Amino acid sequence: MTTKTPTTVAPVLIGYQRVSTDDQHLHLQRDALIRAGVDPERIYEDMMSGARADRPGLEHAVRAARRGDVLVVWRLDRLGRSLKDLIGLAERLEDKGVGLRSLQEQIDTTSASGKLFFHMMGALAEFERNLIRERTRAGLEAARRRGKKPGRKRKLNEQDLTAARALLKDDTITVAEVAERLGVSSATLYREIPGGRGAVVS
To answer: What tens digit of pLDDT does each residue of 73-117 get?
Structure first.
């Protein structure tokens, strides 16, 4: 009796490319993805700035990928606006059992070294967030010790406020005119003198 050797199914490669309106790398990305083995029919695309958070093409690519598939990009910066975005996407793909391959950086999360790279990036991102939180807390504590209140810096000094109160008592001058004379907006004036004219003349 002959024992059948189980066949290994090759992973499906899902391509993704993003170009901005003034980007000349559209064909460069597509050609690189095809050379890497991606079927042209499986290449998803977004044409928008990297600053945009909504990327329907990327979302469709992620949804199309099944366990064992690999999302292939020309370069990592095609995927996210920040390290946080990139790590979040990598974790989402990992949860689905989908690999991530970047051609320019030669990173492949289906390999041990590729997984290690993203785990290190995730740890560094968390380390950076903790540092920012600690510095913020330390800055607030130092400000309190110096007697300063944290928050928005006042735009009007005491001399300006005295002048503003005097002007507000003159009902022939509008609040907008008072604010204009002091070089601030009406909203700022109301914030500095809660209640505005009513608080001054009452």
So the answer is: 998 888 877 777 888 888 889 889 999 999 998 889 888 888 888
User: Is residue 190 exposed (0-12), middle (13-18) or buried (19+ Cβ within 10 Å)?
Assistant: middle
180 in any annotated domain: yes
186 is catalytic: no
- How much is the pTM? 0.58
The neighbour count for residue 98, using CB atoms within 10 Å, is: 24
SS3 call for 12: coil
User: Would you say 197 and 166 are in contact if contact means Cβ atoms under 8 Å apart?
Assistant: no
Structural domain boundaries enclosing 75: 13-110
Q: Which of 20, 111, 186, 202 is catalytic?
A: 20
